[in-house]
Each structure stands twice: as structure tokens, then as C-alpha cells.
Amino acid sequence: MLTEINPKLPMRDKAVTKNYYVNKLGFQLFGDNDFDGYLMVHKDNIQIHFFEFKELEPKENYGQVYIRTNDIDKLYQTLLNNNVLIHPNGHLETKPWGQREFALLDPDNNLLTFGQSIK
Q1: Would strands 46-52 and 8-11 be described as parallel, antiparallel, or unpaired?
Q2: Which of 38, 81, 92, 96 has the fewest CB atoms within 10 Å, i.e. the most exposed one?
Q3: Intervals of the chain under pLDDT 70
Q4: Can you give the pLDDT at residue 31?
């Protein structure tokens, strides 16, 4: 039986990624160990892992994660208050498929889409 999923996304610079997810998005470091070239963060019931890929070309990165939430309006406003840049084509809106969604790009161009069912 499957119980959870922890996506692994590429990062060029661990310090930059850590700063963005912890200080901008409100995640916390996961675990007691600091692994060279690897980062784990968590917030509420999700974890995201990152592996170092120094040669990554951000414009060629197609890493994507869809994160479900139960209070998308509050999350969106919190991120705006923290001066997090929202994807130019990803501002909060209700989609025809019954989700309220918004999206942002992290420093390595990984796309994070947040969604809440409105049905």
C-alpha cells in the first residue's frame, strides 16, 4: 500500500534553495542531519527533497510539483505578504476543472502549483 510521496527536485545552490523554502515559503528543515548536496524540507504534511545539480540550466528545468491545500486563499495572501513572486501566468484563479490554483517558480525554475478543490 502506498502511503506518501516525497518529490525530489534539482537545486543549484543548497543555501539559496534553503533560504527560499524556509524564509519565503515557511518550510522547515527536515531531519537532524545536514547531508552534503541534499536538502529536505517539510511544511504541515508534505516533504520536498532536493538534490544538488550545479550544472542545471534553470530555463531547461521542468521540475514540477502539485501541492494540495485546504485554505488556498490564506496561503496565497501569506505568500504575497512575504513578497514571493507568483508565476506571471499563475495568479490565483478558479479553473474549469474545479480547482482554485496558483503557481510560482523557485530559484531553480521548479514549478510549484498549489490547488484546492472547490467541489
Answers
A1: parallel
A2: 96
A3: none
A4: 86
**In contact, 50 and 8? CB cutoff 8 Å:** yes
Instruction: For the full predicted model, state whether its pTM sits above 0.85.
Output: yes
Check if the beta carbon of residue 104 is closer than 8 Å to that of residue 97.
no
Cα three-residue angle 43-94-8, rounded to 5 degrees? 35
Q: Which three cell numbers mark 92?
A: 490565483
What pLDDT is stored for residue 33 in this prediction? 81
- C-alpha cell read off for 67: 501541492
Neighbours of 82 (CB within 10 A): 11
pLDDT at position 12, please?
A: 98
Strand partners, 114: 67, 102
d(CA 119, CA 114): 16
Q: Provide the pairing of β-strand 38-43 with 46-52.
A: antiparallel
- Compute, in degrees rounded to 10, the torsion defined by CA atoms 76, 47, 34, 24: 0
